[in-house]
Amino acid sequence: MPGSEQQPPLPRERPRRRCIGFKQVVEATLEASRERRDNPQPWIVRKIMVPVVLAIIGYTYYVYVVRLCISMVRRKSGASGSRREGIAFLVVFHSLFAMLLWTYAKVVLTPAGFAREYIPKSPPPAMAQSQHRHPYDESLMTYPTSIGGPEYAPSEGYRSASSSRPQSPTRSGSYAQPTIVSPVPSLQDGVVDDPGNDHNAHRPPTSPPDSHALHNNQAANDLVEMDAIPAVTTMNAEGQLTPPPDNEQHSNTDSIPRACPPPSRQPPSHPALAPQYRYCRNDEIIKPPRTHHCRICGTCVLMFDHHCPWIGQCVGAGNRRFFLLFCAWCFLFSFWTAITLLIPTALHANNGDPQEIVMIFVAALFSLFTGSLATNHFTLIRYNSTTVEHLSVTRMRQRERAVLANYFKIWQCREKRYLLRQWDEEWGRLGTEGNLWWLGSAHANWEAVMGKNPWYWIFPIGKSFTDGLDFPRNPRFSEDGRWRRRAEWPPNGL
Q1: Do β-strands 191-192 and 187-188 pair in parallel, antiparallel, or remain unpaired?
Q2: What are phi and psi of 221, to 5 degrees?
């Protein structure tokens, strides 16, 4: 309108840029990890290494047969050996080559066994309120005297590490048992707090301790940490610790009993065979024993050992025997190839073929890899254990070493061995009696996987000797999978 002043346009507000915080990055990372865990990898990604392995085998055949043996048989100039040597190399190489292809085809084409094909879907079982903690909670590793489970009191008659030496008999003819001293209790106004007494819970509250009492408490705690409290330390009326008489002092510092009792073995206390510990929320099934969920394949595998990218699938109940045979024959094939290529090349250094030199390193690398793999699985089968189960035993051994290192000095090796023997006497050995699926002997464990006929130990014939659903349980364990003490074993238990 005429006479009206035109107002300038208002400036546009710029959109605020929101910075992505650390919380959003963590949530996005966890969400991506959760999607990778729930969704299996594509089929082409899982099988990508199979053609790679076949290409390596084909290139090995070309270098060894065409460039080495054929030149020796035809007596070409610069050949690395005679005609007789070339024929012998060809015969042995083709025998190992046939066994390698046979075992590899068998382990690749034989499924590992999937639980969803045998077990119907079911809702998750109800879990008790006290069993919400995961059986492999890492917080259990922080307790200084606990091995894989909650704390329990030492058994009756438990001897300390200082009693390893023979003791002099008493007048009655029996041997005196060493005194096990409990940790120093908390001191407050000269009263000892005993959590085991019921009347302490109804005791009236006391006044706050003065500085003198706090000083005494700190001194007592320092003595506990320094392992300097004698065996018969007493307490006077003022709440102060008094040393024993001189005639009760020990001359040998290694034989002085510690203030705390020796730690005891603490196996996992959760029921490993209970349905609430075997339920898979991805497949919605109660997994059979020794079954685990493979994130790469996206399903539960019977008697799961590990996922091998070289065969494009998991190693489980269906193909475990074939996997061991493949590793063994691959080791023999690679070792023969590396040795028979290395010796002629070393003897005829001037006529060395570059491709033969490359193949020497490739064959030597595969022989070391497959040889160690075959040895490892040979040992696992003799103990009737899988790679996943062996990792649990390894973690328990590491926790035991940490407990022994925390309780003993570095030079007290004999005391450590003595305490380990006491643990084995009370519970049994970790790899054998402490194995839920141990059958009593290495021979029985071997036959359970490899069969009783020795021909099955050499050739990949037949099929698996286990269905992966039911396994005989070690009688040293309870029905729900708890490791019991030796005193609770069956009378005729193995």
Answers
A1: antiparallel
A2: -65, -40
Tens-place pLDDT, residues 6-45: 666 666 656 565 556 666 666 776 666 666 656 788 889 9
Backbone dihedral angles phi then psi of residue 114, each to the nearest 5 degrees: -115, 135
Q: Provide the 10 A C-beta neighbour count for residue 472.
A: 12
* Contact between residue 396 and residue 138 where contact means Cβ atoms under 8 Å apart: no
* CB neighbour list of residue 359: distance below 8 Å, 6 or more residues apart: 59, 60, 63, 64, 337, 341
Q: How far apart are CA 303 and CA 294, in angstroms?
A: 11
For the chain, what are the domain ranges? 59-127+271-488, 182-193+209-245+253-260
**What are the pLDDT digits (tens) for 173-213?**
333 333 333 333 333 333 333 333 333 333 444 444 444 44
Q: Under a CB-based contact definition with an 8 Å cutoff, are residues 399 and 141 in contact? A: yes
Q: Return the axis-axis angle of helices 320-347 and 83-109, rounded to nearest 10°.
A: 160
Both tokens of residue 301? 């595998």
Q: What dihedral angle (degrees, nearest 10) is formed by the CA atoms of 169, 172, 173, 174? A: -70
Answer for the pair 322, 462: CB distance below 8 angstroms, yes or no: no
Are 293 and 283 within 8 A, CB to CB? yes
Per residue in 282-336, pLDDT (tens digit) is 999 999 999 999 999 999 999 999 999 999 999 999 999 999 999 999 999 999 9
Taking the C-alpha atoms of residue 458 and residue 100, their distance in angstroms, rounded to an integer, is: 12
How distant, in Å, are the alpha carbons of 18, 80, 223, 411, 425 from that of 475? 62, 61, 44, 38, 17
